Amino acid sequence: MTYHALDEKTILEDVRNRSTLKSVFSDTSALTAEEVGDGNLNLVFIVRNAKNPAEAVVMKQALPYLRVAGDSWALTRERVRYEAQALRLYNELTPGLAPHVYDYDEEMSLLAMEYLGSHEVMRRPMVARKRFPKFADHLSTFLANILFKTSDLYLTGLAKKTMQATFINPHLGKIQEDFVFTNPYMTSSENKWNPEIDAEVQAVRGNAPLKLEIADLKAKFMTETQALIHSDLHTGSIMVNERDTRVIDPEFSFFGPMGYDIGAVLSNFVLNFASHYAHTPDRVERESYQSYLIETMRDLWTQFAAKFDALWVANNTGELVPNAYWDFPGGDQAFAEYRRRYIHTLLQDTAGLGACESLRRMMGIVSVWDITSITDNRLRAVSERFNIRVSTRWIMERKRFNSIEDMLGIMQEEAAYVALR
Predict the structure, then answer these.
(1) pTM for this structure?
(2) Which of 79, 132, 145, 261 is the most buried (most CB within 10 A)?
(3) pLDDT in tens, 162-198
(4) Which residues have CB under 8 Å from 286's CB, separation 6+?
């Protein structure tokens, strides 16, 4: 079938004709479709059986342009292939932490996957101060397994490079290089920001020491191929309920620095933390939820580091530092020290790379709903200034960080500053 963009009518015929979806629907005579894509790139349809709404599937189609920018900004449709590959790998390495893939149609750039009707995208309920008690455990398990099991710590060099060759994703990588690490910090036509923080935006763009560090972090993003990273893992790319967590939308996937994924999640918690200066005017309620956010960030990193280290000890099958390398008197202690140093560097990468993700949201092409849903620009500016200060300090001070407490301590210091004003 020749590629063409689908709509709420044509998607129904497509679903009826797919043999891979026969097991999803007991009856296809009463299918309905709703286009729900609110992202920046794709069409997303939920197709349901009106006679039994529990029978449903998500159909995601890549458009040949960047949806947020319009059809003048051409973009390869191949990105949906990377998403299909990544989701299938997630289900292999971390079963139950990503939606199941039913079908992938390369010619139509169309992906059919599990409908998560009992879940919600994490970002909006966090603005409503909902709590997810299983999140830190689930996401730390996901991150530890995906990052470790696609790295040179676990895979042979040949196996890793063979997998890496299937995730060369230059077009979407270019978007991240430009929109996370470059364009927000200079004059660029697509940039947008709250006029109340114009002075802070201009200060960032003229801050030479900060821009030198961001340039170093961009080089790390472009050249380090540690593991398969999601590369867009924020609270809009995670679906949750009180019992379950699923990672979605890995179309930006490629082999890059591990810290980018961990940092993107933590920095989106910073953004949500900041947003409650406007969304939650009651101080007791606000500080209670902000404490929950900090505790979840602490748990996420601590559990990730422990699980990653345990996987490494039990499965040191890669070629970076094989077990025979440590076969000497004192080798066990030396291996433990190497693992400690590796995870310590990963913490510092997490802080710097994650902070670039949150900083760019204040002055680039796309912010986040946590912030943009604040309608009073003066209140919004309080949240944005907090985020700019935290992000800048994470970048500038990351090389002295020895634990997650150093990152969280900066948040608490800046929160105390807000409280004094």
Answers:
(1) 0.96
(2) 261
(3) 999 999 999 999 999 999 999 999 999 999 999 999 9
(4) 276, 277, 280
